[in-house]
């Protein structure tokens, strides 16, 4: 079988550092009957070690050449290959079929990491945990604290839905081809449904999006037409604040108060 050439359009950078691969597999601590899905298995750096510890593994892969390689290398009774785009893959259907908590792992393509994270957040109710290799800058934004320059829409929306921990930093040399950025491994564990206190989730998302769409502006301007100064004052939020100055809880309180005001 001829060597696979990494395709830039798919953001392919293949993990080759054997110690790092072992560290990630150790962090996952998989059990034989886990329902695990790997996004973007590539040349199988994680796939092989995981299959030695699992009864069965699912993978989602968009590259048809890699799909063919995987299907040739592994028996269907051991590996199910879902050929397609993870951005539209219905992870929830897989979890519902198995009737158990879904675990997701992957070295996510940097060019689609943010929209993919938002897509995956929609399956939090059927996911046990997720472990991802991402651009270090993205991980820093995910776990950023309010008031920092990295704190943004991604931070609020993911911190609302998940408990997140940055686990490992990864140098560019761990990949082939070598990317121009550093990477990191992050763990996401869904918060229980009872902890998701936004009354109207779409309104909460709309409010956060509006605030950070013009993050350099004061809230009285970025949220103009959506929230007035009087509501901010009732909640003890200064209209002169900027989007990154509010905590996740502040956004929940603001969205809930806006929902009640509209009723």
Automatic annotation (TrEMBL):
It comes from the Bacteria. S-adenosyl-L-methionine binds at residues 13, 15, 40, 61, 85, 107. It is found in: Cytoplasm. InterPro entries: KsgA/Erm, rRNA_Ade_diMease-like_C, rRNA_Ade_Mease_Trfase_CS, rRNA_Ade_methylase_Trfase_N, rRNA_adenine_dimethylase, SAM-dependent_MTases_sf. It catalyses: adenosine(1518)/adenosine(1519) in 16S rRNA + 4 S-adenosyl-L-methionine = N(6)-dimethyladenosine(1518)/N(6)-dimethyladenosine(1519) in 16S rRNA + 4 S-adenosyl-L-homocysteine + 4 H(+). Specifically dimethylates two adjacent adenosines (A1518 and A1519) in the loop of a conserved hairpin near the 3'-end of 16S rRNA in the 30S particle. May play a critical role in biogenesis of 30S subunits. This is Ribosomal RNA small subunit methyltransferase A. It comes from Candidatus Accumulibacter phosphatis. The lineage of its organism: Bacteria, Pseudomonadati, Pseudomonadota, Betaproteobacteria, Candidatus Accumulibacter.
């Amino acid at each position: 079988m001829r060597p696979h050439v990494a395709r830039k359009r798919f953001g392919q950078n293949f993990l080759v550092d054997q110690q790092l691969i072992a560290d990630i597999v150790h962090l996952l601590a998989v059990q034989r009957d886990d329902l695990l899905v790997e996004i973007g298995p590539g040349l199988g750096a994680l796939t092989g070690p995981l299959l030695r510890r699992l009864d069965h593994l699912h993978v989602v892969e968009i590259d048809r050449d890699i799909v063919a390689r995987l299907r040739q290398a592994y028996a269907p009774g051991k590996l199910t290959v879902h050929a397609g785009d993870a951005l539209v893959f219905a992870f929830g259907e897989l979890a519902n079929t198995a009737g158990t908590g879904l675990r997701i792992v992957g070295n996510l393509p940097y060019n689609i990491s943010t929209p993919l994270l938002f897509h995956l957040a929609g399956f939090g109710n059927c996911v046990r945990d997720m472990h991802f290799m991402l651009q270090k800058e993205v991980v820093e934004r995910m776990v950023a604290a309010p008031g920092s320059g990295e704190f943004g829409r991604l931070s609020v929306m993911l911190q609302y839905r998940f408990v997140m921990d940055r686990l490992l930093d990864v140098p560019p040399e761990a990949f082939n081809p070598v990317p121009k950025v550093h990477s990191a491994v992050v763990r996401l564990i869904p918060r229980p449904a009872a902890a998701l206190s936004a009354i109207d989730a779409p309104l909460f998302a709309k409010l956060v999006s509006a605030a950070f769409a013009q993050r350099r502006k004061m809230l009285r301007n970025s949220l103009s037409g959506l929230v007035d100064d009087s509501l901010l004052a009732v909640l003890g939020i200064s209209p002169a604040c900027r989007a990154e100055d509010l905590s996740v809880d502040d956004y929940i309180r603001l969205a809930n108060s806006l929902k009640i005001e509209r009723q």
